[in-house]
Amino acid sequence: MSIPSDTIVALGTPFGTSAIAVVRASGPLAAELVRKIFGGSSQPRTIRRADYRDARGLVVDDVLFTYFAAPNSFTGEAMLEISCHGNPFIAQKILEDLVGRGCRPAEAGEFSKRAFLNGRLDLSQAEAVMDLIHARSEQALAAANQQLRGALGRQMNILISQLVKVLSHIEAYIDFPDEDLPPEDRLVVVRELEGLQASTSRLLATSHYGELLRAGIKTVILGEPNAGKSSLLNRLVGRERALVSSEPGTTRDYLEEYVIFGPYFFRFVDTAGLNPAPGPLEKRSMEMTLEQADNADIYLWVIDSTCPLPSLPLALAPRMTPANTIAVFNKIDLPSAKRGPLPQAFPDVSISALNGAGLEALQATVTKLAESFQVKIGEEIIAINTRHAHSLEQARVCLASAKDNLEQNDFSELVASNLRAALDAYGQIAGKIDNEQVLDKLFASFCIGK
Fold first, then answer.
1. Which tens digit of pLDDT belongs to each residue from 228-274?
2. pLDDT tens for residues 377-436?
3. Looking at the structure, do residues 147 and 179 belong to the same domain, yes or no?
4. Helix (H/G/I), strand (E/B), else coil: 93
């Protein structure tokens, strides 16, 4: 893909009234814009204060501006950043004036796209920019920062280097058609491919954790009617989100709320009670509960500690394990409260949703369970996204095919063909590809000004 030669401009802050707004321009006109608008030299990386005068010489605003010389800027091009007062009218006037001076309105994600095209970021780092912007928890922020600093890129460079070494070994025999890989060399290559497969699988294992950080850890609150599920949701979110009544079966639909506990972002889902003998309407409500529970990451099994221990619903029992379920004994404020033996070694907490007793212990237990989902590669937090997972899965399939070729004594050309396909799949993650449609689609998901 060719590197653009025009100058783009966009608002780098959200549109609306605020203390300041930032307008960014990137491209070859940046230095000329400094001279024409502010009448001074374009000293790089120096914040200066000046009047912004439009093409007619009229003062638009009192601003701060910074010039960045190529390649020492975010995009790798000459850049101009202008901080004006956050009146949308002022920001729009400056944008219109810059367009009138030869700039073009930037497309979504075009600043990050230029940073990628100019080698300032690899593709995984460019994606991390959006993860950083949308991070809603400490762990999501930490993972995005590590990826922005090249954590995933470094892992991919190691895999690519190892695979290139194996491929060059295979292709050496292709260059000499009178020879083929002797059995002992094939065994060495098989072992190297097994190592690459294991490393690829470790990276793939971080896919679920990445999804949790971006979308939130789905935590479904379930239990029998009147066990206190809605009261617990209200305690967790700190306000009266769900209707609470002593009449069983108040919740007919599910309610979803987002809460941050410690370094994690949770999606709590309050569901209808699991009645052993439901009526027609309750039956449909229970079906919706089971639908929500089907793809839950964590289950909070709320138990009325004043009643006999209920049985787990047959549809959910196989899914609920000590690795994803917390037994929550509610109503411990009542004199008749007691705890029965659990069917599995679930972590358990005793609480009162009425007065908040035990809530901190529950939060700590939920957070600890969330930490078990984390997969570290060495000392780095890796949390790949769906696109990365697709490419890694492609690479894993190709590596497996190459290993089968070797074990079946197929021609070296077949082995090399599968290894090249695996190398291409690895390259898609860091962006070592020449596919304009893929790049356009990816950067189109960015916001304007990034």
1. 888 898 888 876 655 454 555 454 457 888 889 889 999 999 887 77
2. 777 888 999 999 999 999 999 999 999 998 888 888 899 899 999 999 999 998 765 545
3. yes
4. helix
Same domain, residue pair 53 and 170: no
Distances 182 to 174, 186, 415 between C-alpha atoms, Å: 13, 6, 14
- Give, for 51, the enclosing helix (H) or strand (E): strand 48-53
Structure tokens at 133: 């912007």
d(CA 411, CA 417): 10
| 351 plus 223 within the same structural domain | yes
Residues 364 and 222 in one domain: yes
Residue 64: closest CA among 102, 23, 114, 25: 23
Tokens of 17: 């009234």
Residue pair 444/109 in contact (Cβ under 8 Å)? The answer is yes
Per residue in 70-89, pLDDT (tens digit) is 999 999 999 999 999 999 99
Write the single-letter amino acid at 64: L
Calpha distance 119→113 (Å, rounded): 10
199 in the same domain as 153? yes
Same domain, 134 and 42: no
**Domain C-terminal end among 350, 371, 392:** 371
User: Which residues share a beta bridge with 338?
Assistant: none
C-alpha 262, offset from chain centre: 18
Task: Name the one residue in this structure whose structure tokens are 């007919």.
Answer: 252
Same domain, 260 and 289: yes
The answer to whether 105 and 99 are in contact (CB under 8 A) is yes
Same domain, 166 and 256: no
Measured at the CA of 45, the angle between CA 42 and CA 47, to 5 degrees, comes to 85
Instruction: Supply the pTM of this predicted model.
Output: 0.79
**pLDDT class of 281 with cuts at 50, 70, 90:** low
In a domain, 436, yes or no: no
Task: Supply 302's token pair.
Answer: 């709320």
